[in-house]
Design goal:
Pfam families: AMP-binding
GO molecular function, one term: medium-chain fatty acid-CoA ligase activity
Number of strands: 20
CATH architecture of the largest domain: 3-Layer(aba) Sandwich
Structural class: alpha/beta
Order of helices and strands: EEHHEEHEHEEHEHEEEEEEEEEHEEEH
InterPro entries: AMP-bd_C_sf, AMP-dep_synth/lig_dom, ANL_N_sf
Protein name: AMP-binding protein
Largest sheet: 13 strands, mixed
Strand content: 25-35%
CATH superfamily of the largest domain: ANL, N-terminal domain
Family: Belongs to the ATP-dependent AMP-binding enzyme family.
CATH class of the largest domain: Alpha Beta
Strand order of the largest sheet: 2-1-6-5-7-8-9-10-11-15-14-13-12
Shape: globular
Number of helices: 8
Length: 354
Protein backbone atom coordinates (compact mmCIF):
# COMPACT_ATOMS: atom_id res chain seq x y z
CA UNK A 1 0.00 0.00 0.00
CA UNK A 2 1.56 3.29 -1.09
CA UNK A 3 -0.82 5.62 0.72
CA UNK A 4 0.56 7.10 3.97
CA UNK A 5 -0.75 5.43 7.12
CA UNK A 6 0.39 8.36 9.26
CA UNK A 7 0.96 12.07 8.64
CA UNK A 8 3.55 13.99 10.69
CA UNK A 9 0.96 16.57 11.83
CA UNK A 10 -0.99 13.93 13.78
CA UNK A 11 -1.32 14.57 17.50
CA UNK A 12 -2.86 12.34 20.15
CA UNK A 13 -4.07 14.10 23.29
CA UNK A 14 -1.73 16.99 22.53
CA UNK A 15 1.33 14.79 21.97
CA UNK A 16 3.16 15.00 18.63
CA UNK A 17 5.17 12.10 17.23
CA UNK A 18 8.45 12.35 15.34
CA UNK A 19 7.90 9.00 13.62
CA UNK A 20 5.66 5.96 13.39
CA UNK A 21 7.97 4.25 15.88
CA UNK A 22 7.37 6.91 18.52
CA UNK A 23 3.61 6.54 18.03
CA UNK A 24 4.00 2.77 18.39
CA UNK A 25 5.79 3.37 21.70
CA UNK A 26 2.81 5.37 22.94
CA UNK A 27 0.42 2.67 21.67
CA UNK A 28 2.38 -0.04 23.48
CA UNK A 29 2.18 2.01 26.67
CA UNK A 30 -1.61 2.18 26.28
CA UNK A 31 -1.81 -1.58 25.79
CA UNK A 32 0.33 -2.33 28.84
CA UNK A 33 -0.75 0.39 31.27
CA UNK A 34 -3.77 2.08 29.74
CA UNK A 35 -7.17 2.41 31.35
CA UNK A 36 -10.51 1.57 29.78
CA UNK A 37 -10.65 2.28 26.06
CA UNK A 38 -6.98 3.34 25.96
CA UNK A 39 -6.11 -0.35 25.61
CA UNK A 40 -8.31 -0.72 22.52
CA UNK A 41 -6.87 2.52 21.09
CA UNK A 42 -3.33 1.25 21.58
CA UNK A 43 -4.08 -2.14 20.04
CA UNK A 44 -5.66 -0.61 16.96
CA UNK A 45 -2.86 1.89 16.37
CA UNK A 46 -0.39 -1.01 16.44
CA UNK A 47 -2.57 -2.97 14.02
CA UNK A 48 -2.86 0.01 11.67
CA UNK A 49 0.89 0.59 11.62
CA UNK A 50 1.96 -3.05 11.26
CA UNK A 51 3.16 -4.61 7.99
CA UNK A 52 -0.12 -6.35 7.14
CA UNK A 53 -2.27 -4.93 4.34
CA UNK A 54 -5.49 -5.58 6.27
CA UNK A 55 -7.20 -5.04 9.62
CA UNK A 56 -9.67 -7.26 11.47
CA UNK A 57 -12.90 -5.69 12.72
CA UNK A 58 -15.80 -7.19 14.67
CA UNK A 59 -19.43 -6.37 13.95
CA UNK A 60 -21.71 -5.09 16.72
CA UNK A 61 -24.07 -8.08 16.70
CA UNK A 62 -27.27 -6.02 16.77
CA UNK A 63 -28.76 -7.88 13.78
CA UNK A 64 -27.08 -11.25 14.25
CA UNK A 65 -24.18 -13.07 15.83
CA UNK A 66 -21.09 -10.80 16.16
CA UNK A 67 -18.38 -11.81 13.71
CA UNK A 68 -14.91 -10.74 12.64
CA UNK A 69 -14.40 -9.44 9.11
CA UNK A 70 -11.24 -8.56 7.20
CA UNK A 71 -10.88 -5.09 5.67
CA UNK A 72 -8.08 -4.06 3.31
CA UNK A 73 -6.10 -1.09 4.62
CA UNK A 74 -6.29 0.58 1.22
CA UNK A 75 -10.09 0.48 1.39
CA UNK A 76 -10.03 1.76 4.98
CA UNK A 77 -7.79 4.64 3.89
CA UNK A 78 -10.17 5.46 1.02
CA UNK A 79 -13.14 5.53 3.40
CA UNK A 80 -11.32 7.89 5.76
CA UNK A 81 -10.29 10.12 2.86
CA UNK A 82 -13.90 10.33 1.61
CA UNK A 83 -15.10 11.56 5.01
CA UNK A 84 -12.24 14.02 5.33
CA UNK A 85 -12.98 15.49 1.91
CA UNK A 86 -16.77 15.51 2.27
CA UNK A 87 -16.71 17.40 5.56
CA UNK A 88 -13.60 19.48 4.71
CA UNK A 89 -11.58 18.18 7.67
CA UNK A 90 -8.02 19.02 6.70
CA UNK A 91 -4.72 18.92 8.61
CA UNK A 92 -4.84 20.22 12.19
CA UNK A 93 -8.57 19.50 12.55
CA UNK A 94 -9.25 19.30 16.28
CA UNK A 95 -11.35 16.18 16.79
CA UNK A 96 -12.75 14.18 19.69
CA UNK A 97 -12.83 10.38 19.85
CA UNK A 98 -15.59 9.34 22.26
CA UNK A 99 -16.63 6.00 20.73
CA UNK A 100 -15.23 2.59 21.58
CA UNK A 101 -12.21 1.68 19.47
CA UNK A 102 -13.30 -1.95 19.66
CA UNK A 103 -15.64 -1.24 16.73
CA UNK A 104 -15.44 0.29 13.27
CA UNK A 105 -16.72 3.77 14.17
CA UNK A 106 -14.04 4.35 16.79
CA UNK A 107 -11.33 2.79 14.64
CA UNK A 108 -12.25 5.06 11.73
CA UNK A 109 -11.89 8.17 13.89
CA UNK A 110 -8.33 7.04 14.59
CA UNK A 111 -7.64 6.32 10.91
CA UNK A 112 -9.00 9.70 9.78
CA UNK A 113 -6.90 11.43 12.40
CA UNK A 114 -3.68 9.57 11.57
CA UNK A 115 -4.00 9.81 7.77
CA UNK A 116 -5.21 13.43 7.66
CA UNK A 117 -2.94 14.83 10.38
CA UNK A 118 -5.59 15.76 12.94
CA UNK A 119 -5.19 16.93 16.51
CA UNK A 120 -7.13 14.07 18.14
CA UNK A 121 -8.29 14.02 21.74
CA UNK A 122 -9.76 10.92 23.38
CA UNK A 123 -12.21 10.41 26.23
CA UNK A 124 -14.03 7.36 27.59
CA UNK A 125 -17.08 6.36 25.49
CA UNK A 126 -19.56 7.46 28.14
CA UNK A 127 -23.09 8.87 27.79
CA UNK A 128 -22.00 12.55 27.92
CA UNK A 129 -18.40 12.70 26.70
CA UNK A 130 -18.42 16.51 26.45
CA UNK A 131 -19.61 17.16 30.00
CA UNK A 132 -16.25 17.69 31.72
CA UNK A 133 -14.31 19.05 28.75
CA UNK A 134 -13.34 22.72 28.66
CA UNK A 135 -12.42 22.80 24.97
CA UNK A 136 -13.98 23.19 21.53
CA UNK A 137 -13.73 20.73 18.64
CA UNK A 138 -14.07 20.89 14.88
CA UNK A 139 -15.46 17.38 14.58
CA UNK A 140 -16.67 14.34 16.49
CA UNK A 141 -18.87 11.25 16.08
CA UNK A 142 -21.42 9.91 18.56
CA UNK A 143 -24.24 7.39 18.86
CA UNK A 144 -27.80 8.73 19.44
CA UNK A 145 -27.69 7.84 23.15
CA UNK A 146 -24.62 10.06 23.64
CA UNK A 147 -26.13 12.92 21.66
CA UNK A 148 -29.30 12.84 23.77
CA UNK A 149 -27.23 13.18 26.95
CA UNK A 150 -24.92 15.82 25.43
CA UNK A 151 -27.50 18.34 24.20
CA UNK A 152 -26.39 21.03 26.65
CA UNK A 153 -22.75 20.67 25.54
CA UNK A 154 -23.03 20.30 21.76
CA UNK A 155 -22.03 23.96 21.32
CA UNK A 156 -18.46 22.74 21.89
CA UNK A 157 -18.51 20.95 18.51
CA UNK A 158 -18.69 22.50 15.02
CA UNK A 159 -19.56 19.34 13.07
CA UNK A 160 -21.12 16.17 14.48
CA UNK A 161 -21.95 12.89 12.78
CA UNK A 162 -24.34 10.41 14.41
CA UNK A 163 -24.17 6.69 13.68
CA UNK A 164 -24.74 3.30 15.26
CA UNK A 165 -28.53 3.48 15.05
CA UNK A 166 -31.47 5.49 13.80
CA UNK A 167 -31.86 9.01 15.18
CA UNK A 168 -35.23 9.16 16.98
CA UNK A 169 -37.58 11.86 15.72
CA UNK A 170 -37.80 13.30 19.24
CA UNK A 171 -34.02 13.76 19.33
CA UNK A 172 -33.91 15.16 15.79
CA UNK A 173 -36.44 17.81 16.83
CA UNK A 174 -34.26 18.87 19.77
CA UNK A 175 -31.27 19.28 17.44
CA UNK A 176 -32.97 22.04 15.43
CA UNK A 177 -31.91 24.65 17.98
CA UNK A 178 -28.23 23.65 17.83
CA UNK A 179 -25.70 25.74 15.93
CA UNK A 180 -23.58 22.62 15.46
CA UNK A 181 -23.80 21.17 11.93
CA UNK A 182 -25.23 17.70 12.60
CA UNK A 183 -25.53 14.74 10.23
CA UNK A 184 -27.05 11.27 10.47
CA UNK A 185 -24.91 8.61 8.80
CA UNK A 186 -25.72 5.37 7.03
CA UNK A 187 -23.27 2.50 6.90
CA UNK A 188 -22.07 -0.70 8.49
CA UNK A 189 -18.86 -2.51 9.30
CA UNK A 190 -18.82 -4.06 5.81
CA UNK A 191 -18.85 -0.59 4.22
CA UNK A 192 -16.09 0.61 6.58
CA UNK A 193 -18.45 2.91 8.52
CA UNK A 194 -20.66 5.40 6.68
CA UNK A 195 -21.14 5.72 2.93
CA UNK A 196 -24.06 8.17 3.03
CA UNK A 197 -25.13 11.10 5.21
CA UNK A 198 -28.16 13.32 5.70
CA UNK A 199 -28.21 16.77 7.36
CA UNK A 200 -30.36 16.81 10.49
CA UNK A 201 -30.56 20.57 11.07
CA UNK A 202 -29.99 23.93 9.42
CA UNK A 203 -31.01 25.02 5.93
CA UNK A 204 -29.82 21.75 4.38
CA UNK A 205 -31.95 19.53 6.65
CA UNK A 206 -33.25 16.54 4.70
CA UNK A 207 -34.94 13.15 5.08
CA UNK A 208 -32.78 11.86 2.23
CA UNK A 209 -29.37 10.18 2.57
CA UNK A 210 -26.80 11.33 0.01
CA UNK A 211 -23.81 9.24 -1.04
CA UNK A 212 -20.23 10.11 -0.25
CA UNK A 213 -17.89 10.53 -3.25
CA UNK A 214 -17.52 7.50 -5.57
CA UNK A 215 -20.51 5.66 -4.08
CA UNK A 216 -23.63 4.67 -6.04
CA UNK A 217 -26.84 2.85 -5.16
CA UNK A 218 -29.32 0.45 -6.74
CA UNK A 219 -32.11 -1.79 -5.45
CA UNK A 220 -32.59 -5.53 -5.40
CA UNK A 221 -35.84 -7.13 -6.57
CA UNK A 222 -37.22 -6.97 -3.03
CA UNK A 223 -36.47 -3.26 -2.67
CA UNK A 224 -33.30 -3.55 -0.59
CA UNK A 225 -30.39 -1.16 -0.99
CA UNK A 226 -27.34 -2.32 -2.93
CA UNK A 227 -24.12 -0.35 -2.53
CA UNK A 228 -21.58 0.07 -5.31
CA UNK A 229 -18.39 1.54 -3.86
CA UNK A 230 -15.28 0.18 -5.63
CA UNK A 231 -12.99 2.38 -3.51
CA UNK A 232 -13.99 0.51 -0.35
CA UNK A 233 -15.33 -2.85 -1.56
CA UNK A 234 -14.47 -4.86 -4.65
CA UNK A 235 -17.93 -6.43 -4.56
CA UNK A 236 -21.41 -4.93 -4.44
CA UNK A 237 -22.59 -4.76 -0.82
CA UNK A 238 -26.11 -6.18 -0.55
CA UNK A 239 -28.09 -4.97 2.46
CA UNK A 240 -31.32 -6.00 4.16
CA UNK A 241 -32.48 -2.38 4.28
CA UNK A 242 -35.61 -1.47 2.34
CA UNK A 243 -35.30 2.00 0.80
CA UNK A 244 -37.02 4.43 -1.51
CA UNK A 245 -34.37 5.05 -4.16
CA UNK A 246 -34.42 8.75 -5.08
CA UNK A 247 -31.46 8.66 -7.47
CA UNK A 248 -28.29 6.60 -8.02
CA UNK A 249 -26.72 8.64 -5.20
CA UNK A 250 -29.60 9.19 -2.76
CA UNK A 251 -32.32 7.27 -0.90
CA UNK A 252 -34.82 7.31 1.95
CA UNK A 253 -34.48 4.57 4.55
CA UNK A 254 -37.72 2.68 5.25
CA UNK A 255 -36.64 -0.27 7.43
CA UNK A 256 -35.01 -3.69 7.51
CA UNK A 257 -36.64 -6.33 5.33
CA UNK A 258 -36.32 -8.99 8.04
CA UNK A 259 -38.37 -6.73 10.33
CA UNK A 260 -41.21 -6.13 7.85
CA UNK A 261 -44.62 -7.11 9.22
CA UNK A 262 -47.31 -8.38 6.83
CA UNK A 263 -50.54 -7.47 8.59
CA UNK A 264 -53.69 -8.23 6.63
CA UNK A 265 -51.76 -7.99 3.38
CA UNK A 266 -50.31 -4.57 4.27
CA UNK A 267 -46.56 -4.23 4.78
CA UNK A 268 -45.65 -2.40 7.96
CA UNK A 269 -42.08 -1.19 8.58
CA UNK A 270 -41.41 -1.25 12.36
CA UNK A 271 -38.77 1.48 12.04
CA UNK A 272 -41.34 3.84 10.50
CA UNK A 273 -43.80 3.16 13.32
CA UNK A 274 -41.04 3.59 15.92
CA UNK A 275 -40.16 6.98 14.48
CA UNK A 276 -43.77 8.14 14.78
CA UNK A 277 -44.05 6.89 18.38
CA UNK A 278 -40.67 8.14 19.61
CA UNK A 279 -42.05 11.60 20.42
CA UNK A 280 -44.69 10.05 22.73
CA UNK A 281 -42.82 7.21 24.45
CA UNK A 282 -39.96 8.13 26.77
CA UNK A 283 -38.93 4.56 27.60
CA UNK A 284 -36.79 2.22 25.45
CA UNK A 285 -39.11 0.34 23.09
CA UNK A 286 -39.43 -1.35 19.74
CA UNK A 287 -42.11 -2.58 17.37
CA UNK A 288 -42.44 -6.21 16.27
CA UNK A 289 -45.24 -8.70 15.55
CA UNK A 290 -46.94 -11.88 16.67
CA UNK A 291 -49.18 -14.35 14.84
CA UNK A 292 -52.83 -13.42 14.38
CA UNK A 293 -55.62 -15.69 13.13
CA UNK A 294 -57.28 -13.00 11.03
CA UNK A 295 -54.40 -10.71 10.00
CA UNK A 296 -51.63 -13.28 9.70
CA UNK A 297 -49.40 -11.00 11.77
CA UNK A 298 -50.35 -8.22 14.14
CA UNK A 299 -48.23 -5.33 15.36
CA UNK A 300 -47.13 -5.37 19.01
CA UNK A 301 -45.17 -2.92 21.13
CA UNK A 302 -42.36 -4.04 23.46
CA UNK A 303 -41.40 -1.55 26.20
CA UNK A 304 -38.62 -1.64 28.81
CA UNK A 305 -40.57 -0.99 32.00
CA UNK A 306 -41.17 -2.41 35.46
CA UNK A 307 -44.88 -1.55 35.08
CA UNK A 308 -47.49 -3.51 33.18
CA UNK A 309 -48.82 -1.28 30.39
CA UNK A 310 -51.92 -1.54 28.23
CA UNK A 311 -52.82 -0.32 24.75
CA UNK A 312 -55.17 2.21 26.37
CA UNK A 313 -52.19 3.89 28.06
CA UNK A 314 -50.94 5.06 24.66
CA UNK A 315 -54.24 5.61 22.85
CA UNK A 316 -53.38 9.25 22.12
CA UNK A 317 -49.96 8.33 20.72
CA UNK A 318 -51.52 5.69 18.48
CA UNK A 319 -53.71 8.30 16.75
CA UNK A 320 -50.65 9.17 14.64
CA UNK A 321 -50.63 5.63 13.19
CA UNK A 322 -52.63 3.95 10.46
CA UNK A 323 -55.00 1.11 11.35
CA UNK A 324 -52.48 -1.61 10.45
CA UNK A 325 -49.60 0.21 12.21
CA UNK A 326 -51.38 0.44 15.57
CA UNK A 327 -50.05 -2.04 18.16
CA UNK A 328 -52.71 -4.54 19.16
CA UNK A 329 -50.93 -5.45 22.38
CA UNK A 330 -48.16 -4.13 24.64
CA UNK A 331 -45.60 -6.32 26.38
CA UNK A 332 -43.16 -5.07 29.01
CA UNK A 333 -39.80 -6.34 30.23
CA UNK A 334 -37.91 -4.89 33.17
CA UNK A 335 -34.61 -4.93 31.28
CA UNK A 336 -33.72 -5.14 27.58
CA UNK A 337 -30.55 -6.77 26.26
CA UNK A 338 -28.17 -4.40 24.48
CA UNK A 339 -25.04 -4.65 22.37
CA UNK A 340 -21.85 -2.96 23.57
CA UNK A 341 -22.67 -0.07 21.23
CA UNK A 342 -26.10 0.48 22.78
CA UNK A 343 -28.38 -1.18 20.21
CA UNK A 344 -31.29 -3.31 21.39
CA UNK A 345 -30.82 -7.02 20.66
CA UNK A 346 -34.39 -7.52 19.50
CA UNK A 347 -34.21 -11.26 18.89
CA UNK A 348 -32.79 -11.96 22.36
CA UNK A 349 -35.32 -9.67 24.03
CA UNK A 350 -38.14 -11.55 22.29
CA UNK A 351 -36.80 -14.88 23.58
CA UNK A 352 -37.31 -13.57 27.11
CA UNK A 353 -40.97 -12.90 26.36
CA UNK A 354 -41.70 -16.55 25.63
Amino acid sequence: MVKPLLLPKFKLNGEAFSSAESLKDRANYFVLKGKGDEIAIGKFILEWLNDNDFITVKTSGSTGIPKNIILQKEHVFNSAEATVNHFDLKENTKALLCLSSEYIAGKMMLVRAMTAGWDLHTVAPEKNPLENIDADFDFTAMVPYQVFHSLADLYKVKKLIIGGGAVPWKLEKKLQKCETHIFATYGMTETISHIAVRPLNGKEKSAVFSALPKVNFSQSENGCLQIHAPEISEETVATNDVVELISPTSFKFLGRIDNVINSGGTKVHPETVEEKLSIHINLPFFITSEKDGALGERVILIIESEKQLKVEDYSEAFTTLSAYEKPKRIYTLSKFIYTETGKIKRAEVLKNLK
